[in-house]
Write a structure and sequence with these properties.
GO cellular component, one term: cytosol
Domain TRAM: 416-479
Number of strands: 19
Largest sheet: 6 strands, parallel
Catalytic activity: N(6)-dimethylallyladenosine(37) in tRNA + (sulfur carrier)-SH + AH2 + 2 S-adenosyl-L-methionine = 2-methylsulfanyl-N(6)-dimethylallyladenosine(37) in tRNA + (sulfur carrier)-H + 5'-deoxyadenosine + L-methionine + A + S-adenosyl-L-homocysteine + 2 H(+)
Helix content: 25-40%
Subcellular location: Cytoplasm
Strand content: 15-25%
Shape: globular
Structural class: alpha/beta
Bound molecules: S-adenosyl-L-homocysteine, iron/sulfur cluster, FE3-S4 cluster
Domain Radical SAM core: 183-414
Radius of gyration: 24 Å
Length: 480
Amino acid sequence: MMQTNENAIEHIPVTEPERQYYFIEKCKDYVRKISEELRRPLTAAVITFGCQMNARDSEKLTGILEKIGYTMIDQEEKADFVIYNTCTVRENANQRVYGRLGQLNRVKRKNPHMLIGLCGCMMQEPHVVEKLKKSYRFVDLIFGTHNIYKFAEVLATRFESERMVIDIWKDTDRIVEDLPSERKYSFKSGVNIMFGCNNFCSYCIVPYVRGRERSRNPRDIIREIENLAADGVKEVMLLGQNVNSYGKTLEEPMTFAELLREVEKIDGLERIRFMTSHPKDLSDELIEVMRTSKKICHHLHLPVQSGSTEILKKMNRRYTKEQYLELVHKIREAVPDISLTTDIIVGFPQETEEDFEETLDVVRKVRYDSAFTFIYSKRTGTPAAVMEGQVPEDVVKDRFDRLLKEVQTIASEECAKHEGTIQTALVEQVNEHDPSLVTGRLGNNLLVHFPGTKEQIGKLIDVKLLECKGFYYIGEAVEK
Ligand code: SAH
Ligand code: SF4
Ligand code: F3S
């Protein structure tokens, strides 16, 4: 009988993604062994805290976990392996992570096989990792945003060492393609077109935790979307922190509008969305592509952040109130039925009542179909964190409430304008409260609930919008 030689040097591939497939196989062996011991399959839960980009990363983690042999579940208390994919854009996101980690520790004490992994934007902040090392010793693995593709390798290291494994990179210029990924929905998918951000808005931590801007090669993007479309995907959301600067740093530069023209040609794909657009880089060429496209949804998320030119300057947004309004005017001229949504921050350092009134003025002039409103959150390491004139909490709270009221009133008035029209909805799910209804999303991003069956999920169906319920519709399917 041949004996295995313990000292044989294993051949570990040095190129990616082959190296990660090697570690996936290694992890698979470990999972199989533990599973045989316990005489049950091992389960894993990935919990996402952040934006669409984080959600997309979670799909990649899920793809790898499934390959390794884990059964995916939603409840973290019941999982053998829990991963928190974290966000650090505002302080409350961080607090939620620490809170839930505390609870998870109690669960882990009862299940010694349990593994806890942390990744995502929070892990790119050195003070966070210090705190975890000191007070959260029960965490098993920690990795960052730049080396997420190395997940299987980090996990294999943990299986071998039985100790906390930390692997964080400061930055990266590489993009690893062709790793597994498991979509949450069969009919729609996010597609990364770029990573990182170079804008350094003075309040924002993203450029520090996601690194420098890098665009994916257009051929890789098109190939991915072609495969998705062949697999039944009807709608894609092109993702980047600032999609309007896509392609500028490629070896053969290409504009975002040019990329959209290529995506439009893909057979089987019916809808194209993208986010986020920075107003400073939104080109006439893009407006023209939106005007003529048959597939790009008539919805644009255009974060304004503040209506005060003074504050915008301090935020380093590089546009004025007037330039923003002019841009909105141009877009509406070209695409009259466009739905506009935005992000607004209240209480940026030195924001006065007059500055805030300017924000309200923009809200009233643009009449957003919906807006995300945020209370300014101080992020350590950003220029705004050390600015003088931080606004007192009660003042911010008062402004926030006034803004929210204005935004909601206008949004429901805008929503009501569609009553009686027939629009196409992509059916996403059976209604959570009433199983005789299905829920579909319109091109303008509004939701409509109408009588239907689960067989309609993933189909585009024409729906008459009967009754506006403030932010969504009740409707009925109509024959084409
Ligand atoms: N790249 C996107 C936004 C990413 S973060 C863009 O530029 O539009 C999403 C939103 O979070 C931002 O638009 C902003 O409104 C909000 N945000 C970012 N940093 C914040 C902070 N420090 N405090 C409060 N809100 C913040
Ligand atoms: Fe943050 Fe500004 Fe970059 Fe958006 S564009 S991610 S707000 S720095
Ligand atoms: Fe949060 Fe990171 Fe997205 S900080 S908003 S998850 S890029």
